[in-house]
């Protein structure tokens, strides 16, 4: 193929002026060097995004650049870690410069907003695939692990739920995004394509939350991960009850029937909000933390020493529901 | 698809008993936690391998598991870093359990040999793609950077050159691996499919070598990287001269015509040997280091304060050559 080569592409789109940072050596050598700073250990997470599976082939590349990093920063947030840097591996069917320019714009806008430096990468030819590995720092004793929920903890969730899954369902049904301005769908599409990683919340929850996880598979599935890991860690069987009326269903879903709203909030994936548990004694501090960073935090239920997940109406009556998390191989 | 789901796959093939290690928290949370230990900073590298580009669709999955990690460990070796752990992101067209079992065997055999722990990952459906990010530790002042070559340095290379590229050329020409036992080709295929990362050499070269790089693009291209980066760093134009007779051409190529052997040694990629520079005063120590770890080290030339790469015969007469490195987008 004619056109710029691999090293030229890297230089043009992904090499940036050196800045004083915590990466003593960035892009261009066999490895990058990263110093964890004063906080002791590095938090590391990796996510792979595949065309046709995690995003549509006609995705806006700027939004894709944002989302590819956002889902990784969301993992740092769920750990209470402060972003340091990331690596990017990219398989591309062809070297499309307009596409790469827009992708890099979306990627670096979010990276800069979080002080997260691109430290290394790999570029190759192949079916479109993005793999980002992100690094953050966290004092080990303050890391927000998913296995630390305790009987009696409040269950909290940030922001709103269900909009991303609804946008995805609309798009799959229609086969394309509508041209006309449907305000709820425009809002929901923004939630799907440009999730905001809750990094500031993760930092604010250090020393406050017991357990935390980011919502990627859907609320029910992700609560299940917390319960499974925390039960094993505590040596007791933990479950949870949720108050349906407390679920912060996204306003984009206001026009939908109640059962559908509930289903999307419970089972819809891709919200990238934080789910966390904290002792009841910390309610005031949790609400203060949310107010400080300008993010609504909703207390949606409680951890209990009884297996399973229960959903209640405002009168305490059980609501039947069936919701599964998303699994790439089912 | 029927069959095991994503989380079950991860559990079955990639979760292993916890061992006391430098990853205080491994697979199963939003992030892994990695402590760099006493050595100060983390060395990080990422490589993406795509089916049909970096390996054949019919590749032995056990060899692929080995190679996917080996090319990453090779980057740590080239930095003088000690392996700590790695993340694995995997896109698979289907959940083939026999394939995954063999892949995991090859992967973990090499990981265990180097004390390198799988700390996290991601599994998704998609065209076969492997992305590994590897972490090692290195005292920053002892990191073997590619931009530290100096005028007058000896140029050294470990092991042998050219066999991997020859095996690849044979396979591409024949369209399949031959069934019959052609000893040189069997040896060469082993070099292509099961490169041995020179981790012990990287550690032995700390404080001894000036610059180092691993040979993935081919000797000429990789020397070019060292010269380009070191010239920029030193503010002088550096070049190199190579002695053709000193190149450690792999014995698998003994039956080939001399110009072809030279071409493969100079331009063939995928050798994953280390190329390094060291002051002439360190010759004895370099040879001792090679003897200690049982790896032949060949002094193949010298860094000079004159642009370009020159090749000489044993009588000092120039040999014309034309060799390019491999570029995924050319």
Question: What report would you give on this structure?
Answer:
The structure is a homodimer of 330-residue chains. Chain A has two domains: 6-142, 2-Layer Sandwich (60s Ribosomal Protein L30, Chain: A), CATH 3.30.1330; 146-312, PurM-like C-terminal domain (Phosphoribosyl-aminoimidazole Synthetase, Chain A, domain 2, Alpha-Beta Complex), CATH 3.90.650. In chain A, helix 2 runs parallel beside helix 3 and helix 4 packs across helix 5 (183-193). Chain A is of the alpha+beta class and 330 residues long. Chain A is built from nine helices and eleven strands. The longest helix of chain A has 19 residues, at 61-79. Chain A has helices at 6-14, 61-79, 97-113, 163-174, 183-193, 199-204, 219-234, 258-267, 283-293, and strands at 32-34, 41-50, 82-92, 117-125, 129-138, 154-158, 211-214, 239-243, 274-278, 297-304, 309-312. The relative contact order of chain A is 0.16. In chain A, the strands form two sheets. A six-stranded mixed sheet of chain A has the order 7-9-6-10-8-11, sandwiched between helices. In chain A, strand 3 (82-92), helix 3 (97-113) and strand 4 (117-125) form a beta-alpha-beta unit. Chains A and B meet through helix 1, strand 1, strand 2, helix 2 and strand 3 of A and helix 1, strand 1, strand 2, helix 2 and strand 3 of B.
């Amino acid at each position: 193929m004619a056109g710029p080569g691999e090293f030229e592409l890297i230089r043009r789109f992904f090499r940036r002026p050196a800045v004083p940072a915590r990466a003593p050596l960035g892009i261009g050598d066999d490895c990058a060097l990263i110093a964890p700073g004063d906080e002791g250990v590095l938090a590391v997470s990796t996510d792979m995004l595949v065309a046709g599976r995690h995003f549509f082939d006609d995705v806006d590349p700027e939004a894709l650049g944002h989302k590819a990093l956002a889902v990784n920063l969301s993992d740092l947030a769920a750990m209470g870690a402060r972003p340091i840097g990331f690596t990017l591996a990219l398989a591309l069917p062809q070297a499309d410069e307009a596409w790469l320019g827009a992708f890099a714009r979306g990627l670096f806008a979010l990276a800069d907003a979080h002080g997260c430096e691109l430290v290394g990468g790999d570029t190759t030819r192949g079916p479109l695939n993005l793999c980002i590995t992100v690094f953050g720092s966290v004092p080990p004793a303050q890391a927000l692990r998913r296995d630390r929920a305790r009987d009696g903890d409040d269950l909290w969730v940030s922001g709103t739920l269900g909009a991303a899954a609804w946008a995805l369902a609309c798009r799959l049904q229609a086969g394309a995004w509508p041209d006309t301005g449907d305000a709820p769908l425009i809002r929901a599409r923004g939630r799907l394509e440009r999730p905001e990683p809750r990094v500031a919340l993760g930092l604010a929850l250090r020393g406050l939350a017991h357990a935390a996880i980011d919502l990627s598979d859907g609320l029910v599935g992700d609560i299940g991960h917390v319960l499974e890991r925390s039960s094993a860690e505590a040596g007791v069987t933990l479950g949870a009850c949720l108050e349906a009326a407390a679920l912060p269903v996204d306003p984009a879903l206001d026009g939908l029937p109640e059962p559908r709203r509930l289903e999307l909030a419970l089972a819809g994936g891709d919200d990238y909000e934080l789910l966390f548990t904290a002792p009841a004694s910390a309610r005031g501090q949790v609400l203060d933390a949310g107010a400080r960073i300008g993010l609504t935090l909703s207390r949606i239920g409680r951890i209990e020493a009884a297996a399973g997940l229960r959903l209640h109406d405002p009168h305490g009556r059980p609501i039947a529901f069936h919701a599964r998390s998303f699994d790439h191989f089912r």
